[in-house]
Amino acid sequence: MSMRDDRNHPPSEDLFAYRDGELGPEKRALIEAHVMGCSICRSFIDQVSSLEAELRQSPDRAPAEYLERLHESVRARIAASDVAAGAQGALPEEAREEPAAPGGAREIPGRAGEIPGRAGAWRERERRRSWERTGDDDRIRDVPRLPWAAILSTASAAAAVLVVVVILIKQGIYQHAVTPRLPPVAMRAPGGGMNDSTAVAGGAKSDVAARARREAASGSLAREKDLVKQEAERRDAAKLEANAKDQLGERESLDKTRVSQRAPAQGTVTIREEIGENGEPPPAASQGGEEPQKKAANAAPRSLADASNAPGARYDALLGRFGLPPVWDGALVSPGALERAEPELKSLYSSGGAGRDSARVRLYLAEAARLRYAPGDSILYQEIEGHYRRAIELAGSDAETARVAEERLRTLER
Amino acid sequence: MGDKKPDRSAVPDAEIVQLVVGGEIDAFDELVRRTRRPAYRLARRITRNHEDADDVVQDSYVKAYRALPRFDLNRAFGPWFLTIVARSALSRIRQRSRRATVPLDEPGPDGATLAERIPDAALDVAGRQRLMDVEEAMAGLSEEHRAILSLRVDGDLPYSEIASALDVPVGTVMSRLARAREALLEEVEKLRAARFRP
Which residues are within 8 A (CB) of B108 and not within 5 positions of it... i.e. 6 or more apart? Predict the structure, then answer.
């Protein structure tokens, strides 16, 4: 090599690249011209080529039986990975990345009862093979075949459950979950010990508690997480309602007086009924059929707002400008109008001007966002879902808005 | 149970990949059959021991299987798979930071040493010695040099594939490979010189 330390020779990478056929035509011609006339470079290339030939000649260390066993192990792992992928459903590819199996990769896929069909056959074959191997001069370590994947996944699931439980306890959601369900305050007869201003927030709260109880009973981890989120949002909603209450001021006290005059024996009444009493006939079925409610909501929902300077007036005016009904209705709202109204709805909401119409605004915002939604857009999905959930919480006694938001949320989840 | 597997030995790689992606998992067997020997050899050369090589090859097949939906059908499966093996092997030895502490003649999966596996009739004494020298020289190289030489010699990969396996530019492959070859030659010369020294 020292003989090649002459500047007259091309660098060794060029010589090797020439030999490996990795040079472009021009450089190749250049190096070739040199090599043809330079015995030192030719000898250098030959020496290295001969070493590499010896390396290739080196005996294979993998006998056929071993390669067969390797193949079987690969089959088993592929089958296991396939089953795991199937069990994980539509998880993204990255989420299914399997960590390196500890201490090697020979665990038998899955656990008893977990592997259906073909994968079960793989396992069976693997079991038989291990029987057949007994007495074999098997120099490959025959490690205990612990179901590492299963152990790890169980352990991590347990840890996740523990974390969620701790969070839930901190949030006090379990207390909500186990509280016996009270009828929604806004739906109870007046004189029940709670005024209407708390009825709105109280109704939302008891709805959430009821939902929490249902969800807790179902034992769904994901839903419990949702509830934690909802609980936090509920607090925001309560604040918002408190603001709305302040803004509504005198009107509420008027409503309270009117509600308190109603006979307890009448059973349930809604705020909308109370509003109806303010000069307009109440909707025919405040606690029953949804259609009459819907009609009433869309036909004459703002009677009180019209009669006052409440923030609802801003919402009405906005809707009027874009020709939108008071509560979103797929049959009545054109996508174009919704698209145009969206910025103003957002600004109304963020300025706090939506007041008691907050739920309806959130419903509209959900629908506006939904116009842009494409499957797989998880960020937008969360935004839409958030609008619906908030709309449901803020709706309080606005049963129509709550119903539409819940229905739309269900179709979104589907 | 008694199902007879179709003979796919003549089916091109790309078609087999399509079969596997389409749900015929059994077709993956053919890809394994075609690549298992060079894969083990490459993994063994880089990791320098059977246990690691075995794990690396198995892991690599699982990774390749998962990545098949993204496999470029215009490429050959073999070189692509060997780049996965090389990456896994390098990652394995980095995890273990074993560097050249494994004896050269560590037994293979059948327990036979390298010397025992050279058939008597295949080489004369001098030939056997040359072969042992080059193996020893290879084993004495740095991990970086051994890996790149293995990719070129055992994997027979073009520079572009080596660059992809090592995650370096092609220019780096050219220079690193040249340094590795020079180092191998130097090591072999040293071994041979030592043997002839009185």
Answer: A61, A62, A63, A66, B44, B50, B114, B117
DSSP notation for A375-388 = TT-HHHHHHHHHHH
Residue with tokens 């969800």: A215
- What is the fold of B13-104+114-196? Arc Repressor Mutant, subunit A (1.10.10)
Does the distance separating the beta carbons of A16 and B131 come in below 8 Å? Answer: no
**pLDDT band with cut points at 50, 70 and 90 for residue A231:** low
- Provide φ and ψ at B32, rounded to 5°: -65, -45
Q: The tokens of A74 are what? A: 């690969």
In this complex, the residue of A22, A66, A77 whose CB is nearest that of residue B109 is A66
Closest C-alpha to B114, from A166, A321, A54: A54
Helix (H) / strand (E) element for B180: namely helix B170-196
Q: CA-CA distance, B89 to B150, in Å (whole number)?
A: 11
| Contact call for A118 and B62, based on CB within 8 A | no
Asked if residues B84 and B66 have their Cβ atoms less than 8 Å apart, the reply is no
The residue ranges of every structural domain in chain A are 2-57, 64-137, 159-413
- Which residue in this structure is represented by tokens 């009677």? A303
Per-residue pLDDT reduced to its tens digit, B66-98: 999 888 888 889 999 999 999 999 888 887 764
Of the candidates B144, B187, B114, B132, which has an alpha carbon nearest to the alpha carbon of residue A47?
B187
Q: Is the pTM of this model over 0.90?
A: no
Do the Cβ atoms of A393 and A386 come closer than 8 Å?
no
**Interface contact B174-A97, CB threshold 8 A:** no
Residue of B nearest to A61 (CA): B108
Taking CA–CA distances from B120, the nearest residue in chain A reads A59
ipTM over 0.85: no
What tokens appear for A83 in the block?
A: 């089953």
pLDDT tens, residue by residue, B116-161 = 655 555 567 777 788 888 888 998 898 889 999 999 998 889 999 9
| Residue length of chain A | 414
Domain ranges of chain B: 13-104+114-196
